[in-house]
Fold these 2 entries.
Entry 1:
Amino acid sequence: MLIAQNLCKTYRRHAVQVPVLTGLNLEVRTGEFLSIVGASGSGKSTLLHLLGTLDAPDSGSVLLDGKRIDNLPADQRGDLRNRTFGYIFQFYHLLPELTMLDNVLMPAYIRQSLFNWWATRGQWRQRAEDLLKRVGLGHRMTHRPRELSGGEMQRTAIARALLMNPRVLLADEPTGNLDVESGGEIVRLLRDINREEGVTIVMVTHNLDIVAATDRVVRMVGGVITEDTPAPRHVFPQPRLAAV
Ligand code: ADP
Ligand code: MG
């Protein structure tokens, strides 16, 4: 469904060049929950940004359903980012002044005419409320981000990412800022969404425990994929210690 072909990306600042992706190939299959692991600085976020057209490669291409998306005009990439992809980040990126409900509604506010928005806002609001209930936050709709825990903020960010009914969720270290327990809840939620809604998920992590909840794991070293295996099945999502 989503293919990276021979991606190269080098960051340049003054005379310093940092080659990050050096000819990377990856195929994401429809409906799978894929995890990407690799050391800090190995280029995982860079790859995710290129897959989601948040940034462009120096060379190589990104294909969605067989069509190139990395070189589309800006407005078409904007539509893809709004409708086809949903993004989840380590630090949630919620707007502090808005309620959780309004944060979830944000993707629908933008990229619609004001008229359209007013005509359809009741349906959007209903969908946002349903999604907040879906992620277990039906009682938190009118709270603001600072009143919530990290896990609750990330669940809100997941609801926001789902609002436009995307085909692919791109999650960059979604549990990186959470304790083990709330991180586990986030990954189980993503797992359920993947199974029940059929949304394809690409998740970057350097936490090897949580990859066991996914279908397949690829490892990045030196700017390319070096390993591609079914995810191990043993530790997660079962609790690690049996109750005594
Ligand atoms: P990861 O997510 O695996 O930790 P990144 O993709 O964030 O890795 O970064 C890969 C390398 O590229 C790192 O060495 C990082 O410092 C560098 N890098 C990332 N973004 C930029 C940027 N905008 N400008 C310059 N260097 C960058
Ligand atoms: Mg990163």
Note: Confidence is low (pLDDT under 50) at residues 235-244.
Entry 2:
Amino acid sequence: MARITASVYTSHVPAIGAALDLGKTHEPYWQKVFGGYEYSKQWLQANRPDVIFLVYNDHATAFSLDLIPTFAIGTAAQYQPADEGWGPRPVPVVKGHPELASHIAQSVIQDDFDLTIVNRMDVDHGLTVPLSLMCGQPPRDRFEWPCPVIPFAVNVVQYPVPSGRRCFNLGRAIRKAIESYDEPLNVQIWGTGGMSHQLQGPRAGLINAEWDKRFLDRLIAEPEQLAQVPHIEYVREAGSEGIELVMWLIARGAMSDRPPTVKHRFYHVPASNTAVGHLILENA
Ligand code: DHB
Ligand code: FE
């Protein structure tokens, strides 16, 4: 059977992708951000999964106000990096895992979560920046990501967005789906977005480091209680875009009920307009 071995949580700030693509990683400003991922790159090389289930949000790139799926699972064989207005990022095409993705869709939909099935989609910074942070720039002669990726897009852009509680329970259903897949795959689940940030309005630039750090503490130690936090608290305390953090609860809900091992924890302000948060949790 397939199993979830670990979960990874990280911000997905688009400027991080630009810093990588434009060769600015050694500038002092960015060094402080990328320094937090040095261990993570080594860890991923030593703990290479067969598949990554990557929870992220599309930022009006593949979807728009014309079509707003709450939860969308990618069942395609591959996904192109999206053009978000300045050309696609120069990163490899993302290879999918249609068989496992279809199995998860079957299982999770039968468990009463209505997923949108996506057979064609470009993937934006929400998905490619976490891959870059964890994998680094793939070499020219092996220009590919280390393993297949199943994109799982969550609407956190247009209200109504799903509650933390629903996200946590969805994670549990995803765990059950993966654990019933009849092939011994090592699967990691990644939750991306956050941490506190607000990109528009009078409070643009808001960062709440105290709230963010408490979120990390609670995500590790009491995720089910954390999942009860209502939207209004995210918006009030972590800014309008802080709501991206509900996606971390999907990854956390997919982990074992036993306490995880904390392999890595990193927090840094600022990166672009956000606080960068990052965790690696292994299943005991
Ligand atoms: C920024 C951060 C995000 O998570 C995002 O999706 C877009 C912009 C920012 O910090 O600028
Ligand atoms: Fe975002």
Note: The first strand starts at residue 3 and ends at 10.
